[in-house]
Amino acid sequence: MIGAIFHLVRGAHVGFVLAREGGLAFVDPSQLPPHLRLALKVGRMLERPGLGDGAARLSVALTRLGPSYVKFGQFLATRPDIVGMAAAIDLERLQDRVPPFPQGQAIRVVETALGRPLREVFATFSESIAAASIAQVHKATVIEPDGTQRALAVKVMRPGVRERFQRDLQAMRFMARVVHTLSPQAERLRPREVVEILARSVMMEMDFRLEAAAMSELAQNTAGDTDFRVPKPAWELTARDVLTSEWIEGTRLHDHATLIAAGHDPKALGRTVIQSFLRQAIRDGFFHADMHPGNLFVDADGRLTAVDFGIMGRLGHKERRFLAEILLGFILRDYKRVAQVHFEAGYVPAHHSVDDFAQAIRAIGEPIHQRRADEISMAKVLTLLFDVTALFDMSTRTELVMLQKTMVVVEGVARSLDPQLDMWTGAEPVVRAWIARNLGPVGRLESAGRAALTVADVVADVPDLSQRLKRILVRLDEAGTGDAQRLEAFARQEKRRALWSTLALWGIAIGALVMAFR
């Protein structure tokens, strides 16, 4: 009871701050029942005069509420399926910048995490050079065995931040339950699910070992790319609360004047931004999902360099094929193929017509070919595509939503470097290369290999099924007369189920082999 009262007070405080700073302007009253529309109207009366629009309002409100709510706003920026694309774009501008915590505290966190005094670990350790709600970054150096110095970036967890997040998340869970109780219609926005996804995301982001693993995986995937690089983590100097990695010397991507003065070509960099992202998403299935200009640098060799790997996206083989074929279908104006890809992936229910869906896709694609390439937004096309699929009962795919949102940001970064950038020409080489590799002879052989492994798994399961039947028969022998009859019937049923399951699996495996060589 005391906990509920505490959460209710916290919720009232959050509501007051949002109302006062104009954060309730994002709420659509038409989606609310009458009693909540009245509450919203009263809340809007509390707004301070002279407020800005969009993220200018939310930025102040969420910053006042604390780091947990700033992170919540950034999380919602990746979920336009929940807040809408306009609000998501506004929230993308929300800056996670807070005053740094004292140097002494940072040193204690490092020493505790690494288990050694700072002087035994680093030769130098600077004051904070950047601070956010979860952590801050310091520049440090270590002495190599040959006597040279190596520069490192050290990310240090903010003291007490986990406890603060846990406390605020409990309040958010309580408020989500209240929203559901007061307005069951609001469940379409899945407030309770959103809070739980946020909780998992933030807790993973608060273990820097996981971020180092993401950095390492992305570095391995892009090792052969000459125009993109990822700093390497220093595993021996990384723990849950400390992430140490290679120091990046470069120019931030939003500093156009310095880029040009250094001799870099903004147009080439614009192409690199879009192609690097698409290679990560389509080729590797693992992409940096926070590619705003503050996280992108250009080194002295002109290579695009990314930092901050707390938010990553992952796509399976099916999703990558889906994306590649959609982009190529729009490039080639093959709308029937774009529609078929949606049905083959199972994203649109089979009771709909492929031809009707292709007609809807054509309504999106044909206007593209009536305009100059630099006037076409790839991100807008994908947004329209997802809007159309909603009419055909396409369920929300979280991984595709994150991809869509990241593409909006990436396209904005690329166009800021080259306003006339032809996104489709830039994307085509990456898309064609993936399709040639994965849908050509080599890809079919690999599909056949996967089908063969499926067959092997089926064969390997046969002994286990036999053992299960044997155990049932043993129990049958040990049971009484009445139980024996029931167990005998159960054994026959299990035997038939096992037989048909095995035959079905064999059929699927053989069908996969046949399809691989079609």
UniProtKB/TrEMBL annotation:
Q: What species does this protein belong to? A: Methylobacterium oxalidis
Q: Which residues cross the membrane?
A: 498-517
Alphabetically, the GO molecular function entries are: ATP binding; protein kinase activity
What is the gene called?
Answer: aarF_1
Pfam families, per database record: ABC1 (PF03109)
What does the record list as GO biological process?
A: ubiquinone biosynthetic process
**What is this protein called in UniProt?**
Protein kinase domain-containing protein
Q: Pathway it belongs to? A: Cofactor biosynthesis; ubiquinone biosynthesis [regulation]
Q: Which UniProt keywords apply?
A: ATP-binding, Cell inner membrane, Cell membrane, Kinase, Membrane, Nucleotide-binding, Transferase, Transmembrane, Transmembrane helix, Ubiquinone biosynthesis
Family indicated by similarity: Belongs to the protein kinase superfamily. ADCK protein kinase family.
Q: Which residues form the Protein kinase domain?
A: 123-499
Q: Give the lineage.
A: Bacteria, Pseudomonadati, Pseudomonadota, Alphaproteobacteria, Hyphomicrobiales
InterPro entries with a match to the protein in the record = ABC1_dom, Kinase-like_dom_sf, Prot_kinase_dom, UbiB, UbiB_bact, UbiB_kinase
Do the record's keywords include Transferase? Answer: yes
